[in-house]
Amino acid sequence: MNILKSFFLGILGALGALVLEIITLSSPTSMLTDTETISREITSFGYFFFLAIIIEEFLKYLLVYKAIAKTNAGKNIVLNSLFFGFGFSMLEMFLIYWSCQNGSPLDLIGLSGIVIIHISTATLMGYFISKNTVNFISGLFFGFIPAFLIHSAYNILKISEIARQKEITIILLASLIFLDIFLLVKSKIAYNIESI
After folding, report:
1. Chain segment 155-188, per-residue pLDDT in tens
2. Residues near 168 by Cβ (< 8 Å), separated by ≥ 6?
3. Of 4, 94, 95, 172, which has the maximum CB count within 10 A?
4. Contacts for 116 with CB less than 8 Å, ≥ 6 apart
5. What pTM value is reported for the model?
6. Could you tell me if 85 and 180 are in contact, meaning their C-beta atoms sit under 8 angstroms apart?
7. 65 contacts: CB under 8 Å, gap ≥ 6
8. Distance CA 169, CA 190 (A)
């Protein structure tokens, strides 16, 4: 799978996550019945707040594991995972841009954060899956769980009202960029050594 296919797979993955989140919100067993309750749930530390992150990250993990890692034997899984994460973030960015067209203010740090979070979690998953290609469970433990924790930390930070929130967010995002570069370089070196 080339990086362009990985990018479009990311968009499809985000669309799938969005559909699952909508189904969860509208299911008969859902306690979320009105718009006000849904809005409060999305912007607080409630049931749907964490469920949405689990849905996104688990679907991302499955697609990276099944579509990217399984079809990229001998290729750079981490680079393809990065482009997958970039594609995944594009749907969310499009929806935010669309809401900005309807009068909501545009938050550049928030938009950057969406791209960086999705790229970083997908890259992290790709890295650990490439290290544990034969074992779904160890890749899940080292890929999905850290991705869930990173995504949760970012979302909690974005909706919390704490001192120096903007600075802490920038530090987190900068750290994730350095992590991505480190994982890309490390995987590229490993890929080049395996190719010799």
Report:
1. 888 888 778 888 898 999 999 999 999 999 988 7
2. 157, 162
3. 172
4. 173, 176, 177
5. 0.84
6. no
7. 125, 129, 136, 139, 143
8. 31
Q: Token pair for residue 158?
A: 């974005």
**Other CB atoms within 10 Å distance of the CB of residue 70:** 13
Q: How far apart are CA 148 and CA 163, in angstroms?
A: 24
Burial of residue 128 (CB within 10 Å: 0-12, 13-18, 19+) is buried
Of 73, 27, 21, residue with least CA distance to 51: 21
Tokens in use for 59? 């679907």
Closest by CA to 81, choosing from 58, 92, 93, 65, is 65
Q: What is the CA radius of gyration of the chain?
A: 17
